[in-house]
Structure formats: structure tokens, C-alpha cells
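Notes from the pairing session

We agreed to fold both candidates in a single pass and log them together. This is the raw record for the first candidate, unedited. Please don't reformat it; downstream parsing expects exactly this layout.

Candidate A
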Amino acid sequence: MNTGYLLINISKQLRYHLNQALISNGITIQQWAVLQQLSSEKEAAAAELAAALDMDKPTISGIIKRLVKKEYLIKKDNPRDSRSYILLLTKSGEAKALEGRQISDELLTDHLSMLTAEEQQTLNVLLSKINQNKKE
């Protein structure tokens, strides 16, 4: 079977199942992506998040509004650009990012359960190699 098709199909299945599990936990996969990005960067402007997550401005704007309303994010003035603001996770946003990570880890563990530990490690090495090549 074609490698490209397999990768796309597996990715689609994982994304669907992760989104369903996250929705049961009160957020969407896109909202979790924002929380996850801020969890690692600590703070960012909306434009930086949009670029990092490959989202357009209207999409990231709507996600941010919903996350602020849920009290997972706070906005503060951007000292470098008065037209924008800096986003930070609240304590509940940090907790929700961690919950999402745990859900993601459990889902991936379940999906990879038919592979041995050695096969999972090999898969990780190969995917990391492909991913690294894409960034260069």
C-alpha cells in the first residue's frame, strides 16, 4: 500500500479520535493545540500562534476568544506592539493542557498497542527523521 496514503489515513484516524476524546473533556483539538503551544512557549502573540500552528487569523482569533471565555487564557498588553496582545495560560489553562496531553498519550498508547516496544521505538525514530528533514 502507498506510504503517503497510509500516513494520511492514520493521521486522520488519530486526529478524529483525539478530537472526540478532547471534546468529551470540554475542548476541541484546535483549542488544545493552542494550549499546548502556550504550555511550551509560556507566552505568545496571536500572530505567532497562528504561524506556529499553521492557522489563519480569523481561526486563531475565534479559538482565542473561546479559550479566554473559558478562562484558560488571559490577554495582556504587548509591550512590543500596541496593536496586539500577549497570551498566557491561566492555572486552569495549564491544567487543561496537561489533561489534553494525558488524553493524547493514552490514545496513542492504545493505537500503538499492537506494536512491540522495539517497533514503537523504531517508528518514533523514523518519524522523527522524516519530520526533521521537513524542517531543513
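Candidate B (folded immediately after A)
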Amino acid sequence: MIRSTLIAGATAAALVGSASLAPAESYRDSDTQMSVVQNLDIDRYMGTWYEIARFPNRFEQGCEGVTADYARTGDGEISVVNTCHKGAPDGPVEQAEGKAELVAPGRLKVSFVPWLPFARGDYWVLHVDPAYSVAVVGEPSGKTGWILARSPQISAAKRAEAEAALERNGYDPSQLRDVLHR
């Protein structure tokens, strides 16, 4: 397995909307108030999530077979390991390792650049189904957003539920890009 940690400045800038070096497209109407999962059970959220769909962004360009692994650390933080297969679901592996912190109900701050403590991006959980099998994540600027699941595919009904959560939060689901998995 090829492993490379992606901590370049461009990646950090892409993760933190306010620190972006170049303007990124917004996929949501910022006049719509966002609502997060107020009763998010962070321990149930831990584990592996498959990226089902995302709004296009620079730092995941060419990524397929994407997963995100969340785990509690001994210091009270959450470790985050994002895995991307470049070009195809079985392509070369690249990983980004970061840290997350729960800062309010349903709201996390995530950083993939440990030496830049101010470079933390918003990661808001907008929806999670009762079984914690599908989740929707976004952030206020609307430059990023994801549909995540515990398995590489979801039903049409679960997809519609996830897209409805995005719409309620001002996102345009027609701009989503599906992620290929093996």
C-alpha cells in the first residue's frame, strides 16, 4: 500500500474556507440557516464512513473509493484518517491524517495541518439516520459537503433522505458528484 500524508498548504487552505487562497465555488444558499444534529452521539459516529457523494473540491480531485475513519484518542480529541484511491476505486492510496474536536452539538472543527492550529475547518453534521448508517456533513460557506454511509452503497430511499437534508440546509444536491467504490 502506498501511503502519503497530504498536509500541503493548498490542502489546508481548501479545508478552511476562510483561509482559502483562491475562491472556491459555493454549493449552498448562504441565506438559508443551517441546522445540525443537536443530539449527535459522537461515540456512535466513530468508525469508518464511506463517501457516497460530495460537492466537488480541490483537495479530493481524482479521488475514488474514499473513506473516513474516526476514532477517539486518549487526549479527548478525535483522530481522522481520510483515505483516497487516486483515479479509480482500486488506484494508489493517499491518506490525510488529522484531528477533530467537538465544539458544539453536531459541530466539529477539523484540522489536517497540525503545525497550523488556526487552520481548522468547520465540519457540521446536518443529518444522521437513527441507525447511524447514513450521515450528511456540510459547513457554513457551502464549499464542501458530503453524503457518508457505513457501506459503499445506499438505497435510493436513503439517498433521497440525505439529499433532502442537504436541501433543507440550502445546498443544491444536483451539484453532487458520486464517488465510485469497488
